[in-house]
Each structure stands twice: as C-alpha cells, then as structure tokens.
C-alpha cells in the first residue's frame, strides 16, 4: 500500500516538473501535431516485432504506456502514434534525423551511440549468448575454435564476440550479416556454426526454426546489454517526459505485468532485472 502511494506521489511530482516548463523541442511539435512518431523493429521478438500486420512486443507495450503519460504531461489527450519501421542499421539515424521521436526496440546503451542519440533510463538488462544446433557438439564458447559465428553487423553482439575471442585467444571466424533473418538462416543452413545475439532475441528465433528442438542456447553470457529507449540527442524536455513515464510504469508495478505477459514462461526475473525495476522509479 505504502509503495503504491509513494509511486503515485512520485509520478505526480515528476509530471508537474514537466508541466511547469514551457514546451520546447520535439515535445512542442508533438503537442502541435497531436502525433508522436515511434521507430520500431520488425524482427526483434519478443521486444519489438510485427505480427499479423500489428506492431507489438515488450518494448512496444512499454512505449505505449509512456505515450499515455506524455499525453497527461503536455495536456494533449489522444496522441496518434505514427509507427516507423527501422532496421538495426538505420534505427539511430532515423531518430537523429527527426523521422522518429523515439525508438522502441532492443537497443543497448553504449558510449559510442550516445554520440549520435540520447537514451532513456534503462528499461531492460540483456546478455549476449550463442544459438547453436543441438547436434553440433558445442557446449560452451570455448568450443567455437575453428568455427563460424554469424552476427548482425554493427551490433554490440558483434563487438562482444570479437572482444571475447581476443581475450580468450580463440581463433574463430565472425560472419557479419545484414539482418537477423540472414544470420539465423546461416545457422540453419550450416553456413555458420553459431548465431550470436541477445539471449531473449535468440529465444524469439525459435519460433521461426524449422525444428526448434534442434536448437540450443549456450550458457555463456558474453556481455551485459542494458536497453534504453533511443531519443534525439540534446532534447532534455523529451528525455524528461519519457523518463517520467517510465518512472510511473516502474513505480506503479505495471512493469511486473508487462514482464509476466512477455516473459512469464521464463520464470522469475533475474536479480539484475529486479534491481533495474526498483531503480526505474526515479525520485523527484
């Protein structure tokens, strides 16, 4: 009960902080057009993907709740969402160029990316893992010596694999692919021996596998991947509005409902995720 009251008061104070300032930047444009443009991935199941022509996923649902909060903050009910499909290669360019106001996908916050865009507070913590064929005999990352590892080019997963190969002095070939589909197809066809990506994204790939039972995810965690909502660089007002919305979702306990919806079958959230949920409520 006390947590609920505290969360409500915190949300009220955060919203008031936004309302007290005159609208500027993209918030002003959002209010004037009554439209907010959200970039989304089509291939990042279960975070952001399309199903039967509809944009859906954990991050998508989270961003919809943030939009509802922004409506209250700027006193413009009924904002229309313009969905802008993006790829792992152009997602940040689309936000930086003004084609989208935020990107709701599966994007890791990194220092290099912060030179191009800003990010919200952390919304999820992931790890880089390897998907292999069960019959391959690969049991751990140490077994990839002499093997081929498919990755999506330009991702943090590619950098994580290269760094681990160098650190452990393992000689393996990294195969950069343009899309997740190409990387997964390389694994299924035998052109690659493993596919490196975020762990839950690899689980999402099982849905498209010809034989899901023939696939396995290795236990190695090659990197930590803190996710955030990508935002235009230097727009403090929009970043505050988004973080206010996120704080309300995390503080009210709604984040638990979203986790159960999208990841409930995986069991209890990890300690890292539970801590991130607690830290997601930003004090005023």
Q: Could you please describe the fold and organization of this structure?
A:
With 284 residues, this protein is α/β, with parallel strands linked by helices. It is built from 10 helices and 14 strands. Strand 3 (48-51) and strand 4 (54-56) form a beta hairpin. The protein is elongated and about 60 Å long. It starts with a helix and ends in a 5-residue tail after the last helix.
What's a concise summary of this model?
The chain is an alpha/beta fold. The chain has helices at 2-19, 25-33, 58-74, 91-96, 156-168, 180-189, 199-205, 236-252, 254-263, 271-279; strands at 35-41, 43-44, 48-51, 54-56, 80-86, 102-104, 117-119, 124-133, 148-152, 173-177, 194-198, 215-217, 224-227, 230-232. The two termini are 20 Å apart.
Task: Identify the notable features of this structure and list them briefly.
single chain, 284 residues, alpha/beta, six-stranded mixed sheet, three-stranded parallel sheet, 14 strands, 41% helix, elongated
């Amino acid at each position: 009960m006390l947590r609920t009251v505290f969360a409500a008061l915190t949300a009220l104070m955060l919203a008031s902080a936004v309302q007290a300032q005159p609208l500027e930047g993209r918030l002003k444009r959002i209010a004037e057009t009554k439209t907010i443009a959200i970039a989304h991935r089509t291939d990042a199941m279960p975070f952001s993907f399309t199903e039967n022509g509809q944009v859906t996923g954990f991050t998508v649902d989270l961003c919809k709740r943030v939009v509802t909060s922004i409506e209250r903050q700027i006193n413009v009910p009924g904002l229309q969402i313009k969905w802008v499909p993006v790829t792992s290669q152009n997602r940040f360019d689309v936000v930086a160029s003004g084609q989208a106001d935020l990107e709701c996908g599966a994007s890791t916050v990194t220092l290099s990316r912060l030179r191009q865009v800003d990010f919200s507070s952390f919304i999820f913590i992931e790890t880089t893992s390897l998907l292999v064929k069960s019959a391959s005999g690969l049991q751990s990352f140490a077994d990839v010596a002499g093997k081929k590892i498919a990755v999506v080019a330009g991702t943090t997963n590619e950098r994580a694999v290269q760094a681990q190969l160098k650190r452990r002095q393992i000689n393996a070939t990294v195969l950069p692919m343009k899309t997740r589909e190409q990387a997964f197809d390389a694994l299924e066809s035998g052109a690659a021996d493993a596919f490196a990506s975020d762990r839950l994204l690899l689980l999402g790939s099982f849905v498209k596998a010809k034989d899901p039972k023939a696939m396995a995810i290795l236990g190695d965690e090659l990197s930590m991947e803190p996710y955030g909502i990508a935002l235009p660089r230097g727009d403090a007002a929009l970043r505050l509005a988004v973080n206010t919305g996120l704080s309300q979702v995390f503080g009210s306990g709604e984040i638990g409902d979203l986790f159960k919806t999208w990841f409930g079958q995986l069991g209890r959230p990890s300690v890292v995720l539970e801590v991130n949920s607690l830290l997601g409520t930003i004090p005023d």
